[in-house]
Write a structure and sequence with these properties.
Elements lengths: L1 H14 L8 H23 L3 E2 L5 H17 L4 H14 L25 H14 L7 H14 L8 H14 L3 H15 L1 H8 L13 H12 L3 H14 L1 E2 H24 L12
Helix pairs in contact: 2-3, 2-4, 3-4, 4-5, 4-6, 5-6, 6-7, 7-8, 8-9, 9-10, 10-11, 11-12
């Protein structure tokens, strides 16, 4: 990497290039690329894609620092404010994502007292000042969704209909498989897990999801909510095999093992020929 940076500097020097703001016609596209890179850097820090570390605070901190700097330089850019709000609101949950033993803790089981109240307040304030001042973009919408989660005192108090409505807008503004994946969870929380699974089924033929564990991980969660423990266990196992993140492997394998124990207990207690499954509320 050092050699690449050195070669890039030499190329810039030899070409006589200047560091200057792009012309107005190029500015929007250049800004979009910068925001996307900052978003990816933060995501890799918050959800490491490989290795033993559950997160990398150096990456999340640097992404927030650079986005804050960009917001200071372009305070009227709604999507810059949206990205900064999204990063702050998401990072506010970082401490609660890992328990004392190093296990991942899903959002609905996190101790919300551990969430960073100052970051949440700043993120929501950014959204309050920004929404409605310009054309809505994907970062503003994602920040608004994250703010709804942050404003709920408990998981049960989460305003899922509002989140589903926001995902509907996001799917129109910035369609993609990850948006559909997340929207399927919101569908499940509003209309039931079977409806969520139906929404998820639209991604089965999407080649962009072929090499990620997230489709099987979400499917496993929704199958578990629907009471189909056997299918959920298999989906958790498939997801665990596909991820290179050791903390995620451990979490997904644990969920599969817990369901295996549940199925074993059920076989001991259920009379022969009884295969009734009850969908969870």
């Amino acid at each position: 990497m050092a050699q690449r940076v050195s070669r890039a500097k030499q190329t810039i020097k030899a070409a006589g290039l200047r560091f200057a703001l792009p012309v107005e016609s190029e500015r929007a596209e250049r800004l979009r690329v910068v925001l996307h890179v900052l978003y990816l850097v933060f995501n890799e820090g918050y959800l490491t894609t490989s290795g033993a570390a559950p997160h990398r605070a150096d990456l999340t901190t640097e992404a927030i620092r650079l986005t804050r700097l960009l917001h200071g330089l372009a305070p009227r850019e709604a999507e810059v404010a949206g990205l900064l709000g999204l990063l702050l609101l998401t990072d506010a949950r970082r401490v609660a994502r890992i328990d004392a033993a190093g296990w991942l803790v899903p959002l609905d089981e996190q101790d919300r007292a551990l969430w960073d109240a100052e970051q949440i307040e700043e993120g929501i304030s950014l959204m309050t000042r920004t929404l409605g001042t310009a054309a809505v973009g994907p970062y503003q919408l994602q920040a608004a969704i994250t703010a709804v989660h942050a404003e709920a005192a408990t998981a049960k108090q989460t305003d899922w209909p509002q989140i589903l409505a926001l995902y509907g807008v996001l799917e129109r503004v910035s369609p993609g498989p990850v948006v559909t994946l997340n929207r399927a969870v919101a569908v499940a929380m509003v209309h039931g897990p079977r409806a969520g699974l139906a929404a998820l089924g639209t991604l089965d033929s999407d080649a962009r999801m072929a090499h990620t564990h997230r489709l099987d991980a979400v499917r496993a969660h929704l199958l578990e909510l629907a009471g189909d423990s056997a299918a959920a266990r298999l989906a958790y196992q498939r997801a665990a095999r596909m991820t290179a993140s050791i903390p995620e492997q451990r979490y997904l394998a644990l969920r599969a093992a817990q369901l295996e124990d549940e199925l074993a207990d059920r076989r001991l207690t259920d009379p022969p020929g009884s295969h009734s499954r009850k969908e969870r509320p």
